[in-house]
Amino acid sequence: MKPSLVLKMGQQLTMTPQLQQAIRLLQLSTLDLQQEIQEALESNPMLERQEDGDDYDGSDPMGEGAEAASSTTTQADSYQESTTPSVDSLDDDQWAERIPSELPVDTAWEDIYQTSASSLPSSDDDEWDFTARTSSGESLQSHLLWQLNLAPMSDTDRLIALSIIDGINNDGYLEESLDDILSSIDPELDVEMDEVEVVLRRIQQMEPAGVGARNLRECLLLQLRQMPENTYLLTEAQRLVSDHLDLLGSRDYSQLMRRMKLKEDELRETIELIQSLHPRPGSQIESGEAEYVVPDVIVRKHNERWLVELNQEAVPRLRVNSQYAGLVRRADSSADNTFMRNQLQEARWFIKSLQSRNETLMKVATQIVEHQRGFLEYGEEAMKPLVLHDIAEAVGMHESTISRVTTQKFMHTPRGIFELKYFFSSHVSTSEGGECSSTAIRAIIKKLVAAESPKKPLSDSKIAGLLEAQGIQVARRTVAKYRESLGIAPSSERKRLV
């Protein structure tokens, strides 16, 4: 094929770097946005944080609408401890002169006065970790090792105990078999299976009760054996767990009463004793890091009107540094001046992107509140169906933009903190020709299950019938799907004695 030159004309959509930055900031969560802003402050000298009480002077050193503000800096008088007389040597007049009416600006109390906190290690010390030393959380493994270090035993038994603890999962169960644990020990120690079982029993006596069990039955029996001997119905509970745990799991109470020869009241109290135990004892010790949610939007009711406002404390306010911006010269094409001009332009676009993000977030949040006013007034059962297209059409934006705005953005309401995506749900047709939100249906199912008879819980078919009586037409499989999403067990597992 002979090569040739071909000229073609066409249209292509491209996004400018400014638009790409605006879209990227739009989809960031509040915590990610705070980190992005901090990185921008550290890399761009033209950006600075606007503190509370700072006033804009309205000047524009470049004549292009840059947000500039006059910043005043007050130098604090240094406090020399070497020239400070002791408290005992000061009379009343001198003591009054030593106490200023106000502390200098940009100083902390500890910078001026000696406090008890000064005795703490310096924050610059890499070895000092306040969170690590004051945190109450610890892992199950470390908790067991701490108890092991306090237990007197031989070196061989301690080595066996370490192997057993390594095989215990976060729920407190021993996942490794005793044969595998025995094979992992050095053969030169000549350890036998009896020794491994003895060490395992010692670990099973540690806290939390039930740790080191190999199955649920053993876990419950270990906890029952550590209860006081005079505990009411303790023997019956041990016999039920040991011999009839399968019947308890299937809720076959009639069989349990017949085989254990117990009355209904005695069986109910026995089951209550078993239910007071922990099926996963390790979860009492294992603790993860707390996850904090910072709301982006705050909704409150004032004078019978719902008000929507941005959480100003979530994102710091930025502005262009007027002093650095005033150093930029128009006609200068030097490398330093070009760098400063580029930094100034980047700072302006960054601030503009943040303003665009806030405006878009406010528009979307306001429309959501308008659509879901019933939820704010009456709760989940009044939730209306809502899809991305409805909000996109109301604010004049694309659905992809609405999806970015509602992802990892949270709204603080009088009913709690919810992700913006929570207010979007599909709909189900009603007998009157209307629509009912799937969130409202879940709330109704939860309400029906809470009011059901414990001896005869509602089946999925029965719940579907009750919803149909309210004009909501849903299939049984749909009810089962909603029930599972709520974490509600099937009717056979909800049956219990009263």
Automatic annotation (TrEMBL):
Top-rank lineage group of the source organism: Bacteria
Family: Belongs to the sigma-54 factor family.
Pfam families, per the entry: Sigma54_AID (PF00309), Sigma54_CBD (PF04963), Sigma54_DBD (PF04552)
Function as written in the Swiss-Prot or TrEMBL entry: Sigma factors are initiation factors that promote the attachment of RNA polymerase to specific initiation sites and are then released.
Compositionally skewed regions (Polar residues) per UniProt: 69-87
GO CC, any one term: DNA-directed RNA polymerase complex
MF GO annotations: DNA-binding transcription activator activity; nucleotidyltransferase activity; sigma factor activity; transcription cis-regulatory region binding
Organism in which the protein naturally occurs: Pseudomonas knackmussii (strain DSM 6978 / CCUG 54928 / LMG 23759 / B13)
Domain RNA polymerase sigma factor 54 DNA-binding positions: 338-496
Phylogenetic placement of the source organism: Bacteria, Pseudomonadati, Pseudomonadota, Gammaproteobacteria, Pseudomonadales
Disordered as annotated region, ranges: 41-94
Protein name: RNA polymerase sigma-54 factor
Domain RNA polymerase sigma factor 54 core-binding: 130-324
GO biological process: DNA-templated transcription initiation
